[in-house]
Amino acid sequence: MAKPYQHLTAGNRIIIEHERGKGTSYQQIARMLDKHPTTVSREVRRNSLQNARYHAQAAQVRARRRRSKANAQPRRQTVRLWEEFAQMLRQRPRKLSPELYHGRKTQIDGQASLSCSWLYELLHRDRQQGGDLYTCLPRRGRNYRKRRASGASSSKIPNRIDIDQRPPEVADRKTPGHWEIDTVIGRGHQGVLLTAIERYSRWTRIRVLPHREAQCLAFAILELLLPVRPWVRTITVDNGLEFAAHEYAGKVLNAPCYFCKPYPSWQRGQIEQLNGLVRRTFRKTQSFQHLTQEAVEQEAQELNHMPRKCLGFRTPQEVFDAIRSQAPPKR
N or C: the chain end with fewer CB closer than 10 Å? Predict the structure, then answer.
């Protein structure tokens, strides 16, 4: 049985030249070489001279030159794509991973991309050669101490609405307009970040504050959410006393505020994940006392333009813009 297509050797080409000169058919030559007839006919068609005559030496030179060009193109493309990824990684440190880059390029932009495993291999080689690109990757595996809200705190919040009373549709993430809000504390309790995320789109807003006084936080929540008020249906927070003025913000926004159970952080998993992303830029060792609103808004912009696997490698900004282009959800 004839073999499938394989590269021909110089010796194969000498036999082809000799047999074609005698008028031997492609099928007969293929049997002699143990090749597929298509391999022989393609060889003669591609590597014959202008006078339609086939010469083994000239065919070997042409084939070698063609193969060299074919091999060079993938190498050039690999270099180009690697340089593009490296540049994006430096521009957005700790915000971009090989998986996000590859998914965005292939599934959304419809462009060529290096595979995730190859990108990690190139990052490893860069590190072995003294490069520092690996430091721009998102950090993983760090252990964070879980914050625990005390039962006493939850009992001091007036008119607290338990998460058990929250509509079931909020947990499904099938409808927009449901928000989670939390705080990120600077070193030595110097400054605080108020973080808010829309559960459906993962769209984010951040506000820097001098302290966590309840009335101050209520006003800050309004500053963040009033511009998108039609797309605010519910708010979910923890039992921190900084949210004791929740009724005021909820009344203005016409959105009830629900409180999680004292201990299970998974009930606010979306905001916990967001805070982890924020901590990649604003570390626990950093004081927020002199942090500017411009800096945190820049951070929110970067997060909103970061492709997410859970969104099909679209960005939160793209998903939220699509939401806002439609009529606001009914309350």
Answer: N
